[in-house]
Design goal:
147 residues; mainly alpha; two-stranded antiparallel sheet
């Protein structure tokens, strides 16, 4: 099967740049929150029950399942309703951010990479559209596109 990829260079206006910056901020918040959730789950399972310190350890119920891509995507649906800044971002962009985190964990387990890092403004400067649809950039339709 042949996969064809198209790459476009955008020349956004100042208004569009501010929209993209707000999307990057939302993606970074989603990534960091999801990473903190996974890290808290891992840290809650590090010590034996008879040697855990109640002052420094995370206390998460033992029957809580490990956070994964699917569970965090389900939680993202509710978070988009609760937080307007997430609701303004295309849902596939945020799901791709969670997929990026999942890939970082897979790389850690399978290829021996280190534990994923929290992202600052300098470490997350891109986002992906998985499914473009008919007009994913409808509010940004005045951007000049060069192929």
């Amino acid at each position: 099967m042949l996969t064809r990829t198209y790459e476009f260079k955008l020349k956004p206006t100042a208004e569009q740049v501010s929209i993209f910056e707000s999307w990057l901020i939302a993606c970074r918040k989603v990534y960091n929150y999801a990473l903190a959730e996974r890290k808290a789950w891992v840290n809650s399972r590090k010590c034996e029950i008879n040697t855990c310190s109640l002052e420094k350890e995370y206390i998460i119920p033992a029957d809580t399942k490990r956070p994964n891509f699917a569970s965090q995507c389900r939680a993202l649906t509710q978070a988009r309703k609760d937080f307007s800044e997430l609701g303004n971002v295309h849902v596939h962009v945020l799901q791709e951010t969670l997929k990026r985190l999942e890939n970082a964990f897979v790389a850690m387990w399978d290829r021996g990479h280190g534990f994923p890092r929290f992202k600052s403004t300098n470490r997350m400067r891109s986002f992906n559209f998985k499914q473009m649809g008919k007009s994913p950039l409808a509010p940004l339709n005045k951007a000049t596109v060069y192929t």
